[in-house]
Design goal:
A: mainly alpha; MetI-like fold; 2 domains; two-stranded antiparallel sheet; 14 helices; flat; disordered N terminus; B: MetI-like fold
């Protein structure tokens, strides 16, 4: 009997609806109990901190910049509409969106190339070559561009010699380069996973029915790689929106992005409620995107 | 036809894709190689070659604060990885092996957020929370923060492994009157072990690499290596940073290969 009540799919129980329901409830509890450590941890150190950000964004600013949980107001949120602030927010949205599009175009051609190599061993090898930079330290990878774009570095010399570009370090193009470099692997991996799974006989069938190569790609390959496109875009767009290390190392005073601006609020500017409101704005975008993603029927990233 | 049957890519397009592919690889690798190369240069300037030399490595090893930061980093990574691996694996089991349970959907969505959230936002959240509940900032808060983002990464890797696993194995064990625990110990765990270790190695890497979150929740004396290096880069760029960077990239590469070797061992 001990074995039987552990197994909801056994026939004896299936025959009795009451027992079946009880077994199902037991399974449900078991699933929940497995999740408890992670669930409780994430509530304590992710969900509650997430809520506190919003609470603090309505608090008033103390003398040291720390929030005073009194005199609740909307100051921090109305500050978001100030011209200086909206310029930074607009610039960050633009940078994140353009970076996502660039990563998507370059990453798609790249992932498609890897996924269509005929030999499994070639695909595996190329994928390993993508994983190495993906696992390598983000800070070091950003720092590398600091050296490459140095005023007496080779890239600057080539640019000045050909007259195509000048000094890039501490300008917006340098930030773009750094972000593209930093986030490209995050786009390639989900795209590869999606493209590799495509059943090519569908494309073949389309071609047999006289669809042109372009049409077959647009009507078959592209829609089938949609999960990868969505997952990759989320993994690039949201982190780019709050990028801090890249603009800090490669950018200058005129390229302040949301990430830097938030950090300033907790440092030099000493305005924690405003910093909270800015973080809260990013969180709203993130939560909405996550909901949209799960609504779109995707199961995992 | 050299491609998959039906991949429907013309020869010319395929050649263009190949060129693009190798250009992307060059783009991904050249900057790292340049840093590694210059770390062996004797010149005082970061971007110029001054003959082969190991002086920056010698200086790195004699740098007290840097070595202290390295020790901090290793302890923090070790602790946070162990906890995150256990919690993350249990979470993956709950999501993959149990069809329905109360608030499963919510948990699933919450579990994915730490993966996509920008570092700065997570850093702000945790700083506010730790100061609010009165936890003194230091190594402890860094470990708590690293566990918070690593659980999700471990869970995703383990879940991918579980999804590819044949449930017949576990059913067979149950049919042979193995208890739940025995089934888990003898069947499920050995089968998902590559995923668990792979997730653990990813967690270790992320913990070793984190800059932004650590810099927010650290206290006096608890600085980690990446945060220390970030501070150095912001002040002024010296060739010693090239040597430290090479060390960090080498560590990441060892971890990738270890992870790949584990995943291959079916």
């Amino acid at each position: 009997m001990t074995m039987l009540d552990q197994r909801p799919d056994s026939q004896q129980e299936a025959a009795n609806p009451e027992l079946e329901r009880r077994a199902e409830r037991r399974e449900s509890w078991r699933g929940f109990f497995h999740a408890v450590p992670a669930y409780a941890y994430l509530i304590a150190f992710f969900v509650l901190p997430l809520i506190i950000v919003f609470v603090f964004s309505f608090a008033s600013r103390g003398r040291t910049g720390r929030p005073i949980l009194d005199n609740w107001n909307l100051d921090a949120w109305t500050k978001l509409t100030e011209p200086l602030v909206s310029t930074i927010v607009g610039r960050s949205l633009f940078v994140a969106a353009l970076n996502t599009v660039l990563c998507l175009i370059i990453g798609y051609a790249f992932a498609y190339w890897i996924a269509t190599r005929p030999k499994q061993s070639t695909r595996t090898l190329l994928l390993i070559l993508v994983l190495i930079p993906f696992w390598s330290n983000f800070l070091v990878r950003t720092y590398a561009w600091r050296i490459l774009l140095d005023s007496d570095g080779y890239i600057t010399q080539i640019g000045e010699f050909t007259g195509l570009w000048g000094r890039m370090l501490f300008t917006l193009p340098a930030v773009f380069l750094g972000l593209l470099y930093g986030f490209l692997p995050f786009m390639v991996l989900p795209l590869y996973a999606a493209i590799e799974r495509i059943d090519w006989s569908l494309v073949e069938a389309g071609r047999d029915l006289y669809a042109s190569g372009t049409r077959a790609f647009l009507k078959i390959t592209l829609p089938l790689s949609r999960p990868g496109i969505i997952a990759g875009s989320i993994l690039v767009f949201i982190p780019s929106l709050g990028a801090y290390v890249t603009p800090d190392i490669l950018g200058g005073a005129k390229t302040t992005l949301l990430g830097n601006f938030i950090v300033t609020q907790f440092g030099a500017a000493r305005n924690w409620p405003f910093g909270s409101a800015l973080s809260g704005a990013i969180l709203i975008v993130m939560v909405l995107t996550t909901i949209l993603y799960f609504r779109s029927g995707a199961r995992t990233l | 036809m050299t491609l998959h049957e039906g991949a429907a890519t013309g020869r010319r397009l395929d050649r263009m894709l190949t060129i693009n592919g190798w250009l992307v690889f060059a783009f991904l690798y050249l900057p790292i190689l340049v840093v590694i190369g210059f770390s062996f240069s004797g010149a005082n300037n970061v971007g110029t070659w001054g003959g082969f030399s190991l002086r920056w490595y010698e200086r790195m090893l004699g740098n007290g604060p840097l070595i202290h930061a390295l020790q901090n980093t290793l302890w923090i990574a070790l602790f946070s990885t162990i906890v995150a691996t256990v919690f993350g694996t249990a979470a993956a089991l709950s999501l993959d092996r149990y069809r329905r349970w109360v608030s499963k959907g919510t948990f699933d969505a919450v579990l994915y957020m730490p993966v996509i959230i920008p570092d700065v936002t997570m850093a702000v959240m945790l700083l506010l929370w730790f100061t609010q509940i009165g936890l003194p900032l230091g190594r402890g808060t860094i470990i708590l923060a690293h566990i918070a983002f690593n659980i999700s990464f471990v869970a995703i890797v383990v879940r991918a492994r579980l999804a590819n696993m044949d449930p017949a194995m576990e059913e067979a064990a149950a049919d042979l009157y193995a208890s739940r625990w025995a089934t888990f110990r003898r069947v499920t765990l050995p089968l998902i072990m590559p995923g668990v270790l792979g997730g653990g190695l990813l967690a270790l890497t992320l913990s070793l690499d984190d800059v932004v979150i650590t810099s927010f929740v650290q206290g006096p004396g608890s600085t980690t290596l990446p945060v220390h290096v970030f501070g150095l880069i912001r002040r002024s760029v010296t060739p010693e940073i090239n040597a430290v960077s090479t060390l960090m990239v080498t560590a990441s590469m060892i971890l990738v290969f270890a992870s790949l070797a584990i995943q291959r061992r079916e």
